[in-house]
Design a protein that fits this description.
The structure is a single chain. With about 250 residues, the chain is an alpha/beta fold. It is about 40% helix and about 20% strand. It has six helices and eleven strands. The strands form three sheets. Strands 3-2-1-4-5-6-11 form a seven-stranded parallel β-sheet, with helices on both faces. A two-stranded parallel ribbon has the order 7-10. Strands 8-9 form a two-stranded antiparallel sheet. The longest helix is centred in the middle third of the chain and has 26 residues. The chain starts with 6 loop residues before the first strand and ends in a 10-residue tail after the last strand.
């Protein structure tokens, strides 16, 4: 066990990137609250980690302020403090729906999860981190390649991910006085159940359908672990990690 007595919360921890990050943190000795909407997936991730009582399963809806408060309260009650928050929970809209055909409900669902949910978790993290001893902690936000450049038919997702960049900067600035560091990891084409379709072909900016390369999601876990383990005097403000040959640089 490399890391002792450090505590993390990972949202969207039941699958994909969140699961990979939770397992990486648990593997390094962290005590981790695995938060998400599907309890059975959280329980399976906790079981697969072999971490025993260092893993806390917390069914959470990040769009619900009461649910978010309960998550952070349960984490503090169980582990006594909070050192790292990985703000990861997020959703998109079907890529087949054009901007002009999106419903207000579809737009609001993405905003509520990707942006408002992240804000609610950040608030609760601040409240714990600024009051604990030793004071401070680290917040890592899951941005996206879409925080830089959109894919076709992705207005809600892209808009929220651009907004996440603003939230990351504001959190980094406003957290300084409390010894709270905040950075963002922008991920491109990690091999997860949601992204596996890219290998079969996805729309490009020129209207073509082309397959795209993917990378092992475990590399994301290792990258977030690196960010998490830095001393609070040091911060990775922004990291872009992507499949080397994905069409991002030069996209469009």
């Amino acid at each position: 066990m490399k890391t002792t007595a450090r505590v993390a919360i990972v949202t969207g921890a039941g699958s994909g990137i969140g699961r990979a990050v939770a397992l990486a943190l648990l593997g390094d000795g962290y005590r981790v609250a695995l938060a998400g909407r599907r309890k059975e997936l959280l329980e399976q991730a906790a079981k697969d980690s072999g971490a025993g009582d260092r893993a806390l399963v917390a069914r959470t809806d990040v769009t619900d302020p009461q649910s978010v408060r309960a998550l952070f309260a349960a984490t503090k009650e169980r582990f006594g403090r909070l050192d790292v928050l990985f703000n990861n929970a997020g959703i998109g809209t079907p890529g087949s729906v054009m901007l002009e055909d999106l419903t207000l409900e579809q737009w609001q669902a993405v905003v509520n999860t990707n942006l408002t949910g992240m804000f609610l978790c950040t608030q609760e993290a601040f409240r714990i981190m600024k009051a604990q001893s030793p004071r401070g902690g680290r917040i890592i936000n899951n941005g996206s390649i879409s925080a830089h450049a959109p894919r076709p038919n992705s207005a809600p997702y892209t808009s929220t991910k651009h907004a996440v960049t603003g939230l990351t900067k504001s959190t980094s600035l406003d957290g300084r006085k409390y010894d709270i560091a905040c950075g963002q990891i922008d991920i491109g084409n990690a091999r997860t159940p949601l992204a596996s379709r890219m290998a079969d072909g996805v729309p490009q900016a020129n209207g073509e359908i082309r397959p795209e390369p993917l990378m092992d999601v475990d590399h994301i876990g290792a990258a977030v672990l690196h960010m998490a383990n830095l001393p609070l005097e040091t911060n990775v403000q922004f990291m872009t990690i992507m499949a080397t040959k994905m069409p991002f640089v030069g996209r469009g």
